[in-house]
């Protein structure tokens, strides 16, 4: 049996930090199972249910748990999203390492996640779409955090049921408020990266010259202007 503590990546460590003591957590799309093991051994989760859509990743998670002597303390379920979990079984739902659209579709199929649950979401793509979907579907993001992992900046969202004020395209792209970050300057770097991506997309649209792209180009210009405003706002927040 493994005697060392499991090591989490920077991304999963940041996710774990938001799991409160005594949580009854559900880790959706667990794959390797390191997060549930860490939460039971090093965090103070009371219970963890680990799910995956596919048998192979779930059996990887079972093996990880057995290696750490936790095979009978973590519950494993083969299911799509939250379909195999009852609302009363979890107060903290973690969905990490998936695309923003998949995260939205998992939540859409489990409307109970709007009712008093703590949602820790770590999308790998389509952040603006996910923020917009959450706002329109009756969720509110209360905190955002940035981490750097293998040279990429990743975002973690803390959300729950609630209302979101109207959002500009730039806030959908970058977040509602200055994110927390373990590393100084990361929020500014994130904004600069988003601006560069938006500029590249604008350039591509200008080259295509298709009349139907004019509307999208205008949207990207608004995002760029908004990002410049956010840069000023976030630097004021830091003082
Ligand atoms: C890239 S891994 C992420 C693993 C881990 N959560 C992390 O963040 O490191 C994505 C996992 O989610 C699973 N998955 C994808 N769609 C899912 C769904 N609808 N329900 C449950 N699991 C899903 C995949 O099978 C895969 O094991």
Short summary:
One of its GO terms (biological process) is methylation. The chain has 239 residues and is α/β, with parallel strands linked by helices.
Can you offer a commentary on this structure?
This protein is of the alpha/beta class. The chain folds into two domains: 155 residues, Vaccinia Virus protein VP39 (Rossmann fold, 3-Layer(aba) Sandwich); 53 residues. Helix content is 43%, strand content 22%. The chain is built from eight helices and eight strands; from the N terminus they run αβαβαββαβαββαβαα. Strands 3-2-1-4-5-7-6-8 form an eight-stranded mixed beta sheet, with helices on both faces. The radius of gyration is 19 Å and the shape is elongated. The site of S-adenosylmethionine has 17 residues, from strand 2, strand 4 and helix 4. InterPro entries: SAM-dependent_MTases_sf, TrmK. Keywords: Methyltransferase, Transferase. One of its GO terms (molecular function) is tRNA (adenine(22)-N1)-methyltransferase activity.
Structure ligands: S-adenosylmethionine
Shape: elongated
Strand content: 15-25%
CATH topology of the largest domain: Rossmann fold
Summed up, the helix count is 8
Find the count of extended strands (DSSP E, 2+ residues): 8
Do you know the CATH architecture of the largest domain? 3-Layer(aba) Sandwich
Mean pLDDT: 95
| Terminal residue distance | 49 Å
Give the oligomeric state: single chain
Find the structural class using helix and strand composition.
Answer: alpha/beta
**Residue windows where pLDDT falls under 50 for at least 5 positions:** none
Largest sheet: 8 strands, mixed
CATH class of the largest domain: Alpha Beta
Strand sequence of the main sheet, in spatial order? 3-2-1-4-5-7-6-8
CATH evolutionary superfamily of the largest domain: Vaccinia Virus protein VP39
Q: H/E series, N to C?
A: HEHEHEEHEHEEHEHH
């Amino acid at each position: 049996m493994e005697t060392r503590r499991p090591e989490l990546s920077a991304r999963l460590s940041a996710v774990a930090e938001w799991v409160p003591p005594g949580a009854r957590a559900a880790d959706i799309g667990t794959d390797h199972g390191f997060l549930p093991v860490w939460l039971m051994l090093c965090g103070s989760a009371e219970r963890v249910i680990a799910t995956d859509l596919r048998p192979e990743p779930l059996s990887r998670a079972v093996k990880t748990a057995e290696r750490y002597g936790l095979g009978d303390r973590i519950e494993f379920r083969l299911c799509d999203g939250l379909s195999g979990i009852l609302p009363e079984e979890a107060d903290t739902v973690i969905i990490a390492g998936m695309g923003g659209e998949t995260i939205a579709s998992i939540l859409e199929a489990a409307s109970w996640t709007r009712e008093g649950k703590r949602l820790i979401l770590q999308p790998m793509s389509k952040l603006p779409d996910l923020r917009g979907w959450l706002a329109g579907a009756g969720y509110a993001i209360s905190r955002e955090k940035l981490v750097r992992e293998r040279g990429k900046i990743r975002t973690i969202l803390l959300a729950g049921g609630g209302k979101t004020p109207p959002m500009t395209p730039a806030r959908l792209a970058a977040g509602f408020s200055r994110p927390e970050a373990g590393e100084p300057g990361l929020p500014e770097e994130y904004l600069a990266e988003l601006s560069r991506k938006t500029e590249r997309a604008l350039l591509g649209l200008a080259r295509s010259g298709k009349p139907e792209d004019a509307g999208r180009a205008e949207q990207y210009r608004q995002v760029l202007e908004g990002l410049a405003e956010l840069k000023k706002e976030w630097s004021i927040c830091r003082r």
